[in-house]
Specification:
Layout: E1 30-34, H1 38-48, H2 50-73, H3 81-91, H4 93-108, E2 113-117, E3 120-125, E4 131-136, E5 140-146, H5 149-154, E6 156-163, E7 167-174, H6 176-195
Antiparallel strand pairs: 1-2, 2-3, 3-4, 5-6, 6-7
Helix pairs in contact: 1-4, 2-4
Length: 222
């Protein structure tokens, strides 16, 4: 009987790092990695609620200017400020949400990274703490590509990866149609190879535990 390694889950200082390389398994190879286009990512976050935020700001701004003018003329008592200030701070919530989402996008873009290995897709993200999402190829059901008008402007697109137990979106990736197609091939190859070991793995040891040797990302993307 194989002896259990009681120190398997022990964490040392050297294992506290949060880079992609630190969470790869032994023998796992990176086939492709990318980060979102910074301008596209931040612009889309800013545009998301911009119309609502502008309308709200103009509407409330008109009231604030009118009240301020009334106070300067003495027609509105200054004592009403104790009610007006908290009211508008609360009423401007859509504007604060818009500002917060834009600031969040600027902060988190530094930590986002997408990686495809010969075993899974890894999505690194987070603002303060770093999060990792893993999608194993044998669980992936669909890979779809969506390109918005803003995406077209920056020549990027979003890749939606849906798995049986998880899902992820790879935002603002360059060459989205090419990369999406390569993901589909990769998923098909790996799933077929797991269930039906084939020539993509060495003939001397066909099957799941050997190396995938036909990466679509080896081709020139440009």
């Amino acid at each position: 009987m194989k002896r259990i390694d009681e120190r398997y889950f022990d964490v040392t200082d050297s294992m506290q790092a949060n880079k992609i390389e630190d969470i790869l398994n032994v023998g796992e190879s990176v086939l492709w990695r990318a980060k979102p286009n910074k301008k596209a990512y931040v612009m889309q976050a800013a545009f998301k609620m911009l119309p609502i935020a502008l309308i709200w700001l103009i509407f409330d701004g008109a009231f604030i200017v009118g009240i301020s003018y009334g106070m300067s003329q003495g027609s509105i008592p200054l004592g009403i400020l104790g009610f007006i200030i908290p009211f508008f701070l609360l009423h401007l919530t859509p504007v604060w949400i818009w500002i917060g989402n834009t600031i969040k996008a600027v902060a988190e873009i530094q930590n986002i990274e997408y990686v495809a290995t010969d075993r899974r897709i890894i999505v690194r993200s987070g603002v303060i703490g770093i999060d990792f999402k893993f999608l194993n190829y044998n669980e992936i059901e669909t890979v779809n590509v969506k390109v918005s008008p803003t995406d077209k402007l920056f020549k990027v697109g979003d890749i939606y990866v849906n798995a049986s137990s998880n899902s992820a979106v790879l935002f603002d990736v360059s060459n989205p149609y090419v990369i999406g197609s390569k993901f589909q091939k990769l998923v098909l190859d790996i799933k077929s190879d797991i269930h039906y070991p084939n020539a993509l793995r060495p003939d001397t040891n066909p099957g799941y535990h050997t190396s995938y040797t036909d990466s679509p990302f080896d081709e020139d993307l440009f």
